[in-house]
Structure formats: structure tokens, C-alpha cells
Amino acid sequence: MRIILITGISGSGKSIGLNALEDAGYFCVDNLPPSLLRPLVESRLREGAAALAVSMDVRSAMSLSELPQDIRWLKEQGHDVKVLFLTAKTESLITRFSETRRSHPLSHRDGGDLSPTHRPTLVECIRREREMLADIEGLGQVIDTSGLSANKLRAWIKDLVGGTHAPLTLLFESFAFKFGVPLDADLVFDVRMLPNPYYDLLLRPLTGKDEPVIRFLDAQPEAEQLLGDIRTFVEKWLPSYKRDNRSYLTVAIGCTGGQHRSVYFVEHLATHFEGMARVLKRHRELD
């Protein structure tokens, strides 16, 4: 059975992800205590189900320590298990809680009858939640949802869980350093030292996918050399990541605006590595 476990920080989009999986045909359960995961899987198997998605979060914090053992048991039973850990920058989480006007789950954890003046602040709750979930963050693919629209998050999750099962998914992501390094990046490469097409007025409105920008960067010897260095590095260490039983490896390429150079690099790298792993690409600032 295909099993997707969604966990992560409150406000990072777990409900949106679960809805996306439900639309994709998964039987979905929200806020399931880990202690009930095995009985649920066995029940769904008896009913002939092929796909199950479960959301777990800090509301079941007392039993989250059981999750690694449960994941190991599921894999030993032959199930195709993927874990998605959603997170976001604190400022993005604050904005989302402000927009929805909902309280953080941990704001009532130490006593529902506490007066508002004695409850922890939102920032304190977020900090505490990160500490409580630190041990399970590395169980699967980390997705940084900072600045993502709901539609884009749904599309990303469908991309990550779709397609034919492969030992490792290699994700190339372009980004702008001025908006911060993606939290889900495993490897980060900086290409800001290369000539910037932005300063050519004819190239400024284009992206690294457009032929004029591609020709501009193709003509830069430094760009070709750096691209070759990154290809060589990833090729050399990709087998080691596979041997480490990783499901995902995110390679982030950053430039100043996330529009030209980083996009160019991601497009070239994704094309080069097709066939070596299941390859995905995304352009954070263009998306």
C-alpha cells in the first residue's frame, strides 16, 4: 500500500497537503495519534485500500516518539512509505495565524483555562513546537512553504508523491538569496559571482528559460565551468546519498533575484540528471 505521512509545523500547510492527497485518491486521516497508525493500516488493508495519507502533528506530541518505529515497521511490511515534513519561516507562520485568527495548538497545552495574559505568545509556541518536532524532521522530505500559495503547495506535493516509485528523488530548486535560502535544501550552490543578465535591459524581463538568456550565459566561460563543477559534485556523491537510503535530495541554486542565473542552472542540471534518478525541478521565485 502507498502510505504518505504528513507532519510538521502548525500553520505550514498540512491541511492543504492532505486535501491535495485526497483529491489524488488517497484515503486521508487528520491528526491521527501515532499509536493508532498500525491498526489503521491493517484495517485499510483488509478493506483492499491501495493508498493512505495520514497527518500527524504536535497535537499528538506525547506519542510522536513512536513514529520512527512505526515507519520502520511499515517498510518492513513492504509498504511504500513517504514522509513529508512541512515547515516555514517564523515570520510566514505569524502572518498566517494572523490572517486566519486561529490560536496555536500549544497556546492551550498547559491548561485550557489559562487567561490570555498567562498564555505563551505565538512566537514562543512556534519556538517550542520546533524543539518538540526536531527529532522527526529528518524522517523524510522537508518542504519549506514560506511564501507559497495554496495552489502551488498542492502542485508541489502532487509532484513529490506522484510518478513511479524510485529509490531517490533528485529535486533542483532555484531561489533568490534576497528572500532567504530554502529551508528544505540539502545542498546549496551560489551562482551570484557570474555575469548577471539583469543588467542587460533586453534580458531583464526574461528568465533563465528564455533563449536569449540561455545564449548569454552559454557564452560565459565561468558559467560553463561552474555548471560542470556542480554536475561533477552531485554525480560523485549521488551514490552515497542513495546508499544512505534517502528518498529525496534537494539541490538549491541561488542567485540575486532567482530569475536568470539560478533558473538557467536548474534547467540544465535537471536535464543532465534525468535517467540517474527521478528528477523534479521548481523555481521558487518564478512560481
TrEMBL record:
RapZ C-terminal domain location, by residue? 169-286
Matching HAMAP family = RapZ_like
Note whether GTP-binding occurs among the keywords. Answer: yes
For this protein, the record's PANTHER family field holds: RNASE ADAPTER PROTEIN RAPZ
Molecular function terms, GO-annotated? ATP binding; GTP binding
Q: Which residues bind ATP?
A: G8, I9, S10, G11, S12, G13, K14, S15
Residue sites binding GTP per the record: D57, V58, R59, S60
Query: What protein name applies here?
Result: RNase adapter RapZ
Specify the RapZ-like N-terminal domain's residue ranges.
1-163
| Species of provenance | Noviherbaspirillum pedocola
Q: InterPro entries in the record, alphabetically?
A: P-loop_NTPase, RapZ-like, RapZ-like_N, RapZ_C
Alphabetic keyword roster: ATP-binding, GTP-binding, Nucleotide-binding
- Going by the entry's taxonomy, the superkingdom of the source organism is recorded as Bacteria
Q: Name one Pfam family in it.
A: RapZ-like_N
